[in-house]
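[job 4471] stage=fold_predict status=RUNNING
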Amino acid sequence: MATSPKLVAVAGGCLLALYAGYLVIDKVHASSALAEETDANAIPNVSVIAPQKSPTKVALTLPGTIDAWYQAPIYAQVSGYVKMWYKDYGAHVKAGDVLAEINAPALDAQYAQAKADLASVMAKYKLATVTAERWRAMGRSEAVSGQSVSVSNAGEQSALAEFNAAQHNVDHFEALERFKTIVAPYDGVVTARNVSVGDYVNSGGGSVDSSGGASELFTVADTHRLRMFVSIPEVFSYVLQPDLTAEVTVPQYPDRKFTAQFLTTSQGFDPNTRTAITEFTMENDKQELWPGTFASVALKANNEHSQLYELPSSSLVFEEKGMTVATVDANSRVHYKKVVVGRMADSSTEIQAGINSQDRVIDNPPADLLEGDQVHIVTPQRGYNESGFGKSE
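[job 4471] inference complete, writing structure tokens
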């Protein structure tokens, strides 16, 4: 039976109407889903933390420098050429051990001249003494005038003064002659030798460089004990207590820990770094540690502010009216609270007032987050936040 053209047209129209309706419904559904997704994306995701009490013990690790108990740069006191050196780098020396000898012919000539001058002045003094004695004898018998005796006595005193001056000059050159031999000032280790045989050294210094400066000939360090210097930041100066002990690690012994005892501090802060130089002492009987060693210094002390709360420094918001933090209420709305901060560190900050343990504080809040905004609380991926502060869901 043949299909009526009219029936085919009606069926095609119905199919077209159904397809058009499907397109309209799909578009409406897509628009609704897009609107819902847009609204959801408009609500920022944030992670929140709960304020924690400050620990009863405070611990920090700072860089330090280990130095010798005594360390002396040794300079030449006479000018001349190095005749020979006897102690090299790392040599263990006793007080008075010869380190080097200096050949100083100019000094030797001056010394010889001083002794000759002394001999000449001594002869003149002896002559003046004999002459004065004779004039005094004649004066006692009134064979000569008193004026003549006085002149003779003055001549003797003048000759004595010249003799004493010549003697002091000889003593001066004798002292310089002894400086031709460079000796160790105390028991220790030679940590530097800056001369070789034949080098010209200058009085008051070592080898003269192109700029006219002079370096030391040797450096001798007493390392039976060591001093360690640490720059303590101003905010952590409260850890400096008389019984403070530091745990020290050094690069050459990564698996060992050494102990250092607090000795003293500068009691003043460097205005450029806001740190105070602090000195510790370390025993070094086995000579294992060397001067100039970099040290990682771990300090622990009682926390005077353990009753305060702590927050990560990333949660603080700097505003014109002061320091604030962004909190989230039970309805997921943002409220800013003004806080009073205490000691600040790179990772955490003490909060003296403004929050309590029930607050949910936003960690690292977005810059465009406003009062009353709605937020969505999420849990960060593992490893994203290593601050150690408690998370609040």
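[job 4471] summary: The helical segments are 5-42, 105-140, 146-178.
[job 4471] exit 0
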